[in-house]
Amino acid sequence: MIDQLSPPILERRSNEIHVLLPGLTPRNANNADRFIEHPYRDGFHDQVSATIRGGQEELDFSERKGQWERRCEQKGQGEFREVESGYKLCQADSDLFMRGTTEGPLIFACNKISDKNPYCTLAEHTGAEYGVLNLEFSRKYVYQADEIRKRFRALLDSFAEN
Questions:
Q1: How far is CA 98 from CA 34, 84, 114, in A?
Q2: Going by C-beta distance under 8 Å and a sequence separation of 6 or more, which residues neighbour residue 41?
Q3: pLDDT digits (tens, 9 = 90+) for 97-122
Q4: I want to staple 92 with a disulfide (CB 3.0 to 4.6 A). Which of 21, 76, 99, 133 is the partner?
């Protein structure tokens, strides 16, 4: 007999959404040529790849911040410095970014500019307890990461409302 009080088991699934920046435009007949089949090899250009990974948990901000500060000390400059638009940067094995926002802290990493296809990866809770939202986008949008995150949260919320 199954205990009816036990919590539901989340499946470990990944669901992907691909859209174009700046407006999170979905694929259509007019823009299909702008979607990259292999963004890791060919570069992300204006494409964002969003993956929702069920059954995973993202560390809370204080744990992640501590990990990134240690990573900065061990593999980088030792501390975060102020850069554009209120972001803080540590150049380590990857470029590590932090920023405080009204929607909560923002922490993400970008490949080095010198890499063949530099892109950024931002991972955080979906906000609906379904797992972790992972956003990957071109490094050219690095200082728009907070806006990209806000738009994706709004997009996810729109699915929950329907």
A1: 30, 11, 21
A2: 117
A3: 999 888 778 899 999 888 888 999 99
A4: 76
Confidence of residue 48 (pLDDT cuts 50, 70, 90): very high
User: At which residue do the structure tokens 């806000």 appear?
Assistant: 150
pLDDT exceeding 90 applies to what percent of the chain?
40
The yes-or-no verdict on residue 125 having pLDDT over 80 is no
- Beta strand pairing call for 95-99 and 106-110: antiparallel
Q: How far apart are the first and last CA of the chain?
A: 35
Q: Which residues contact 143 (CB under 8 A, 6 or more apart)?
A: 84, 85, 87
The string of DSSP letters for 127-156 reads SSSS-EEEEEEEGGGGGGHHHHHHHHHHHH
Which two tokens mark 3? 């205990």
- Burial class from Cβ neighbours inside 10 Å (0-12, 13-18, 19+) for residue 95 reads buried
- Please tell me the predicted confidence (pLDDT) of residue 3: 36
The pTM of the full predicted model, rounded to 2 decimals, is 0.81
1 forms beta bridges with none
The pLDDT of residue 52: 82
CA distances from 28 to 16, 68, 142 (A): 17, 39, 26
